[in-house]
Amino acid sequence: VLVLTMGLLFPLSACSGEGGADADSAALSVRGAYLSMSGCSGTLEVTADYGQRVYTYGMALDWSRDGETVLELTSPEEVAGLRARLTEEGGALEYDGVSVETGPLTGEGLSPMEAPLALLDGVREGYLASTGLETVDEREELHLVIRAPEGVPGTGTELEVWCDPETGTLLRGEILSDGRTVVTCEFQSFTMEGEEEKN
Length: 199
Hints:
Helices cover 16% and strands 43% of the residues. By secondary structure, it is α+β, with helices and mostly antiparallel strands. Strand 4 and strand 5 (90-94) form a beta hairpin.
């Protein structure tokens, strides 16, 4: 599976949004939690915008740092049960022996099935171009903008992620290609698993 090359750990950019130092501190805390977690799981709705076509999928995510990661489509009915199993050695799509290809969304070849993993990789290791605290529906959310360190806003692949500033729970994420949103992920549930829970 494609892993977006967003660079390794870099210092936070000086370009903070609303919240300033508080947002930067929350971002570092969230990153620490993601780097130390041994796994996570969740359910989400993925909307893929190809320009002429827009598709929406329900998906279940079960990510493991050291073991097997499973992504399974839960809707629509026509593709429910399509499963991607991924390990360090590689991955495979499973669906009653049938492979389904939805096509790449970005120049780097990102597919909708890979979108949640791209968001996880971004929060864990991507260059944090800006951070901010926003109030959405009377709830405070941490907003992260992630792109290549030398990247120019509105060009190439960028990630925007909203999460709980205290727990790190993913709320939603967007993947943009040259300034256009090509994937939107809305999380209905998200649970992080720590090292201590694995032992």
